[in-house]
Specification:
Strand content: over 45%
Order of helices and strands: EEEEEEEEEEE
Structural class: mainly beta
Number of helices: 0
Largest sheet: 7 strands, mixed
Helix content: under 10%
């Protein structure tokens, strides 16, 4: 089992920045990939960014050049630095972890990000 706890959401003006954090606990050594997804009202959940055990990152086209995913291995924390935020980035952001072998997905509780003037 893996537990994920997110923090860092909030209200920000267009052009502003936020950093989301996701702390993991439990069977950490089995995690293959960590990532961030988001879901806006009336839309499907979509992948924002991911980082695998080799450090390879992947980004949605809509956030490339603006968002950066990183990890701190000693604290089992993954971060999402979001710059140049746009109103269309408004969504609930979910932390995700994929367990190797079983490919089980684990999810955090979600954190609201609102970009508005």
């Amino acid at each position: 089992q893996v537990q994920l706890v997110e923090s860092g959401g909030g209200l920000v003006q267009p052009g502003g920045s936020l950093r989301l954090s996701c702390a993991a606990s439990g069977i950490i050594f089995s995690i293959y990939r960590r990532g961030w997804y988001r879901q806006a009202p009336g839309k499907q959940r979509e992948l924002v960014a991911s980082i695998n055990s080799a450090g390879t990152t992947n980004y949605a086209d809509s956030v490339k050049g603006r968002f950066t995913i990183s990890r701190d291995n000693p604290t089992n924390t993954v971060y999402l630095q979001m710059n140049s935020l746009k109103p269309e980035d408004t969504a609930v952001y979910y932390c995700n972890a994929v367990q190797s072998g079983t490919w089980t997905n684990y999810w955090g509780q979600g954190t609201q990000v609102t970009v508005s003037s």
